[in-house]
């Protein structure tokens, strides 16, 4: 693979890659505002300027400039090398690039920072971007100077509502045009543009329109400063108090990789951010998916129930033993869930084998909206995982038919959304005994005789298989809420309550049995995970 030098460090690159792209993939940050690996090149912020040293048989491109000389108290002519934007220049074999080691580059970056901050409001204490703002980071790295301008700064619109999800602060905007390019190139809805010139310039929404659709929150995510803010996260938390866990979006079968940001002091999930994965979601997520983090707390089952009344897990297991202990084990159906992890489904399949039952079904949410960008019509995070755990599993409609015919009277189910929701509750209520291990309330939990509280995807590590067959592992973020425990742990306890000996006791046992020990971490190794 060809290489070039950046500040003396060898950087490998693919033919056609720009300097900044190759450096980014190598884990080296060249300061930038407008560049983004998933968007077209704008080269308008000039923060990524670098000095490219001439080859042995070439002359350096020089510029005549006037520079202030404090000794003579006047400007005097100088010759300096022409700096070039690294986002626009293709890397070539043997190229020698100077960034941090070039005095001219450092001066240029400092100058860019000073210009950007001339009219920037000093509202970091109340800005949502504080703590992860490139203006702050680069000022510390390339600035740390006092403001020289003493004139009144230019004032622009503040807290301007762009649509249902986004609020715009024009005074903070550095006009990088990332949001404009995203809506045009990725969302295919060019609803944003700029008006005016120079320091009067600002981002606007097309006349008669608002910023709406399925990808509006991405405009806030790509904003390198605090100009675009999300109504959902606005003034909610300080990022330096948050911790991030690798997660997978639960909204559909695309399985977008995400960072689940949570507050460890309150044990509360606060937001989702896209996590780079070229094979799955690249750098993006849809609005609906980004808001699924709230399901870590909403509609949850936190305590065990017996006949609708709250009880302890131990008493609920005793009640299950009374319900199912005297019936032929082979007559008990098991119901998998396309919204639970592969490990949880595998544990239930193993329990079914111990019971000797051949009646295996699954539940999943009904299909919904889809597009050609990211959103899949399958609104379940693990449909492919269910098929992997039990290829012979039958759909929920066949379970309903079996219940109506009387051939299925007892069932153990993982909780999950059923296709018609509450409309399915009447058929489920005809079961003589339904035991549900669930993280969320559903028609299944409403019809169940016994409910055992399971942890959500945010409270345990699990494997989810997306529509393309990628096995993706999520990390635990939150501590179990209420009396909840991982579903595979509850299923092991349930097996023992029924007089059976489970072959698993820990998550690693299940992963070993299911062949998941080598499940892929959902990060593509060649892609840097640093913030862009």
CATH fold-level label of the largest domain: Rossmann fold
Mean pLDDT: 92
The count of strands amounts to: 24
Largest sheet: 7 strands, mixed
CATH architecture of the largest domain: 3-Layer(aba) Sandwich
CATH class of the largest domain: Alpha Beta
SS-based class: alpha+beta
Query: Over the alpha carbons, how many angstroms does the gyration radius reach?
Result: 28 Å
User: How are the strands of the largest sheet arranged?
Assistant: 17-16-22-21-20-18-19
Query: What is the overall silhouette?
Result: elongated
Counting structural domains, the number is 3
Question: What level of helicity do the residues show?
Answer: 10-25%
N-to-C CA distance = 25 Å
**Number of helical regions:** 14
Q: Which percent band covers the strand fraction?
A: 15-25%
Stretches where pLDDT is under 50 for at least 5 consecutive residues are: 520-530
3D structure, described in words:
- This protein folds into three domains: 98 residues, Ubiquitin-like (UB roll); 137 residues, no CATH class; 210 residues, Rossmann fold.
- Helices cover 22% and strands 20% of the residues.
- The protein contains 14 helices and 24 strands.
- Helix 2 crosses helix 3 and helix 8 packs parallel to helix 9.
- The radius of gyration is 28 Å and the shape is elongated.
- The chain starts with a strand and ends in a 19-residue tail after the last helix.
Features:
Rossmann fold; disordered C terminus; seven-stranded mixed beta sheet; alpha+beta; Ubiquitin-like (UB roll); 24 strands; 14 helices; 22% helix; 532 residues
